[in-house]
Amino acid sequence: MKNGLQNPRAGYEAPAGVTHGKDAEQAEIYTLLSGIEQRYGYDFTHYSPASLKRRLERALAQTGLTRFTDLLARLLRDEACFDAFLETMSVTVTEMFRDPAFYRAVREHVVPVLRTYPFVKIWHAGCATGEEVYSMALLLHEEAFLDRVRIYATDFNKHSLDTAAEGVYSARQMAAYEANYREAGGKGDFSEYYSPGYGRAKIKDFLKERTTFSYHNLVTDGVFGEMNLICCRNVLIYFDKTLQDSVLYKFSESLRHGGFLCLGNKESLNFTAVKPLFAAVDKKERIYRKCGAPYAV
Ligand SMILES: C[S@@+](CC[C@H](N)C(=O)[O-])C[C@H]1O[C@@H](n2cnc3c(N)ncnc32)[C@H](O)[C@@H]1O
Known about the structure:
The chain is 40% helix and 18% strand. By secondary structure, it is of the alpha/beta class. A seven-stranded mixed beta sheet has the order 6-2-1-7-8-10-9. It has a three-stranded antiparallel beta sheet with strand order 3-5-4.
């Protein structure tokens, strides 16, 4: 429930009337999450409990406080502190051509379909600092139809989005990404795609022109329509089953019939409510295609 302290769903539930030991800590975490949702609108109650707790403990340690209730009191009053808290809550690890075999599979199974369309819409949900998005733009450039593509790249971490839009990475990182690019079936000279200088590498403008980076919270915000491809890789892994189902349902609504959905290699549609709506295109690389009729949950 958005406006009440009771949360009717599974996930981080308030323990019933228990006030000591582990349950007291769970009650404090629940109070913390409820307070954050009420004050800032961010709902973490359906993040996967184990990693959520690790993140919360790290956030607590960073403030020098020892109790979650004290952390809540500070967060409620101090927006800058909440900003830092959000940074800790979002895991933004990413790289260019992460899991090279996935990009080879995209070239093999997805590109031949998408290139037949007059216009292609792609959504990268949870794009972090943008490396994944530029990898896709670069691949589509090499496949010679980037000029017919519009990419929407979203995340709820505003600092990451700023980095993504800037498209400036360290030269050392780019050297490592070049190996991924080759393994991913790169067809050109990787160094042609960025301008080096002062230990930095700036992604060239022609790879940015088709992309819009914007804020979007997968838990609370609506969806973009008529997508041909959605990449949401290494994000669902941080959500519990209820939230995974809800986000996957949003994706199923957002995709056109025949649209592709790509997940991370530790994520899958198995045991999810949307499974009947999709056919596996490449099981190993977690590439699916929407085939079923729309349905209501
Ligand atoms: C590990 S990164 C994955 C980046 C990229 N997709 C990849 O696979 O390399 C996870 C991203 O999901 C974002 N994220 C987590 N919860 C989110 C939410 N509720 N809405 C939007 N983005 C979210 C985080 O901010 C982070 O940037």
